Amino acid sequence: MDKPLLTLTYDQLDQWIESLQPALLAESFTASIGILRGGAPLALMVSHAIGVPVAFVGYERQARKVSWQSATPMPPPGSKVLLCEDIAGRGFTLADSKAFLERHGLVVRTLTGAFDDISRLRPDYANDARGYFTIFPWERQAYTAGYRADWERMASGAADRMAEDHEYAAYAIDLDGILLPDVPLSRYDDLASALRERDALLPFEVLPTRRLKNVRAVITGRPDIDRDRTEAWLRRHGFDHLDLVMRPRDQDDSPASTAAYKAAAARRCGVTHFIESDPVQALLIAKEEPLLRVVWWDAANRSGMLINTVGWNATAVPA
Question: Start and end of every Phosphoribosyltransferase domain (predicted)?
Answer without folding.
Answer: 29-131
